[in-house]
Specification:
- The complex is a heterodimer of chains A (407) and B (230).
- With 407 residues, chain A is of the alpha+beta class.
- Chain A contains 16 helices and ten strands.
- The radius of gyration of chain A is 31 Å and the shape is elongated.
- Chain B is α/β, with parallel strands linked by helices and 230 residues long.
- In chain B, strands 6-7-8-3-9-10 form a six-stranded mixed β-sheet, sandwiched between helices.
- In chain B, helix 3 packs across helix 4, helix 3 packs parallel to helix 5 and helix 4 packs across helix 5.
- Chain B is globular and about 50 Å long.
- The chains are: A alpha+beta (407), B alpha/beta (230).
- The interface between A and B is medium-sized, with 23 and 29 residues.
Chain lengths: 407, 230
């Protein structure tokens, strides 16, 4: 350990109370940042996951324009073959074809409009949680059977129960009249009213017959092994598909979700920035005082031949030591607090509205990740180092004789 | 060979509307290995002269030479390098770094010079032994007497083997016995190492040690005496 390092370390403890106050400010802000970021990033992941796992998936292959204007005729031809090709080439099983149309559903006593999804029972389970949300009856199990699974609210509205028959009336792909009778085999409860009221799922083969799809469908839905894998998989899919179809990732399919996250993140960033600036000023104040009260000493060592750059480095080194202390203790404190909440959960007033909107639980459980643990404290550390630049730069204007006259 | 040359050096300070001539056309040449005292009453210009010789302060006019280098034309970095490599300073108020021990204070300058750790430790121990402080190397300045601190300051000044040591009233804060000991140490170092010493003082006992006595008054050299028997 060099003398300069020892000098920097001992200089910090010339005024232990002042140093501890500054480090405490760092610890506090770092702990807050770790907790808030863990909570925020955990919530975003939950929001994204919960929203995408119903129907959207991580990405979809569609006909151009279908995303914005869901017309029956905007189809992906030979959709089963495309899904099979993608499964084969990507070595990924979580890929399913899907068809989509609108129909009037009629029971014995009532009629309601709903979106009808033609799904492959085998692969739908891999990309959507709706099959697992069937609370009464069962999910679809064959590709051709005239069966239907409806949401809980829709079932209530139709006064339909398991085993009841409902009639589908809609328009086919070619504009022809599409009509069929299907038996209710399952009723799902997602907790999202719009979904429970407006969605019904039928086997894709049955859908193909009723809506005269002729082997076409509307989207191939993919779930990648991880959220961070979406972009590379998207690139691969783009290479594999023909020019007559396009691939959209989740933020194109669910722009509202991304906007909600961005809006929340922007608000949080302002708070984080203020926090970091406050800490940076606290550090600058400490280091400026420290430099000013050592002016005479700096003059002496400069007269011995020490250059201002080396003294500036000493000030930076002192800040680095202080910053590292704040970083480690703050990250540890924040990590422990977050860990406690990750087991016991966290809620705040008004959270239920957001929870309902994004199908989130009533209590949040923040998750400590490397990113949430390191990002905030690292920014505070860098901010502190930058703030010590001014006190360090002042040394370059110091003249030994004048400095030594300072008491 | 000439160690220091001051040619027609002038330096003026301003105090409010008053103009104070700290150095008034000073001409001085000091040989290598000399042991010179510069004496003057307070405000007589001795500290200003030492500062000009040490490159701590720039003269308004004239030339200052250390060996073959004209230092009044050097920039801040070059002056710092010159001080680090060739000049040792001893101050009236010792000016040790309070958070470092005696040995660390001595080592610090060597570290700045880039001397390896092992060599630094060896040399600092030797030099502290030479100034009679081998038992106090682990003490911080606050744990030492004034005389001991000044010896550490001397050790710090000479540890890099400078060709020139500038001491500005080094005995001003010391009692007579300690002053005497310090001057004996300076004389010994001057003799053993051949280091040039320029000491500013108004202490007659200190002046008595010098082989050459330069007297100043109001920024001018008024007497330059070569003393015998010292």
């Amino acid at each position: 350990m060099g003398i300069t390092f020892r000098l920097a370390w001992r200089n910090l403890w010339r005024h232990p109370r002042r140093t501890w106050l500054t480090i405490s400010a760092m610890i506090f802000s770092n702990a807050v940042l770790v907790f808030m970021m863990s909570l925020q990033l955990g919530t975003y992941e939950l929001m994204i996951g919960n929203t995408l796992q119903f129907l959207t998936g991580h990405m979809q292959v569609q006909a151009p324009g279908f995303k914005d204007d869901m017309k029956m005729r905007q189809v992906v031809n030979d959709i089963d073959a495309l899904a099979e090709t993608l499964r084969d080439q990507l070595k990924l099983e979580d890929i399913t074809p899907r068809s989509s149309g609108f129909a009037l559903l009629s029971s014995d006593s009532r009629s309601y409009g709903a979106q009808i999804l033609g799904v492959d029972p085998e692969y739908e389970r891999r990309v959507s949680i709706i099959p697992s949300l069937v609370k009464q009856g069962r999910f679809l199990d064959t590709r051709e059977a005239p069966e239907i699974v409806i949401g809980e609210v829709l079932a209530r509205n139709l006064k339909a129960d398991l085993g009841d028959e409902v009639t589908l009336l809609g328009s086919g792909r070619d504009g022809s009249f599409a009509a069929a009778v299907a038996t209710v085999v399952g009723i799902f409860h997602s907790g999202i009213t719009d979904l429970d009221r407006g969605i019904a799922e039928v086997p894709i083969g049955f859908f193909d017959d009723v809506f005269y799809m002729q082997g076409a469908g509307h989207s191939v839905v993919l779930i990648t092994p991880g959220f961070w894998m979406i972009e590379p998989y998207k690139v691969r899919v783009e290479e594999l598909i023909e020019d007559d179809v396009v691939v959209h990732d989740w933020d194109a399919l669910q722009p509202g979700l991304k906007q909600a996250i961005q809006a929340d993140l922007s608000g949080a960033m302002i708070i984080y920035t203020v926090l970091v600036i406050l800490v940076a000023f606290s550090v600058m104040n400490t280091q400026l005082m420290s430099v000013l009260e050592r002016t005479h000493e700096f003059g002496v060592v400069m007269s011995l031949g020490v250059k201002p750059a080396r003294l500036g480095w000493l000030v930076i080194l002192e800040t680095t030591l202080m910053g590292l202390g704040g970083l480690c203790l703050g990250a540890a404190a924040g990590g422990l607090i977050t860990l406690w909440f990750s087991y016991n959960g966290f809620s705040f007033p008004g959270m239920d509205q957001m929870a309902a909107q994004f199908n989130l639980p009533q209590r949040f459980f923040p998750q400590v990740t490397l990113l949430s643990l390191c990002l905030g404290p690292t920014i505070v550390f860098i901010g502190s180092l930058l703030s010590s630049g001014y006190p360090a730069l002042r040394l370059f204007w110091l003249r030994p004789v004048e400095a030594m006259r300072t008491v | 060979m000439t160690a220091i040359r001051c040619i027609n050096v002038c330096k003026t300070y301003h105090q409010g509307r008053d103009e104070i001539k700290a150095l008034d056309h000073v001409d001085l040449a000091i040989d290598e290995g000399a042991f010179v005292c510069v004496s003057a009453p307070s405000g007589g210009g001795k500290t200003t002269l030492l500062n000009a010789i040490g490159g701590l302060d720039m003269p308004d006019s004239g030339e200052v030479w250390i060996g073959d280098t004209r230092i009044d034309q050097l920039n801040k970095g070059e002056l710092a390098e010159l001080r680090l490599r060739h000049i040792g300073f001893v101050f009236q108020a010792y000016n040790l770094i309070p958070v470092l021990t005696a040995r660390e204070n001595v080592e610090f300058v060597m570290e700045v010079r880039g001397v390896p750790s092992v060599e630094r430790q060896k040399k600092s121990r030797e030099i502290l032994q030479e100034v009679g402080l081998e038992d106090l190397e682990g003490r911080r300045p606050a744990e030492m007497s004034g005389g001991q601190q000044q010896r550490v300051a001397v050790a710090r000044a000479i540890v890099t083997d400078p060709s020139l040591v500038l001491a500005d009233e080094p005995t001003a804060n010391l009692d007579s016995k300690t002053s005497e000991g310090l001057m004996d140490l300076f004389a010994k170092l001057n003799k053993d190492h051949g280091t040039t010493f320029v000491i500013s003082t108004h202490d007659r006992r200190v002046m008595a040690h010098a082989r050459r006595l330069v007297k100043m008054l109001d920024g001018c050299i008024v007497e330059d005496i070569r003393q015998k028997g010292t």
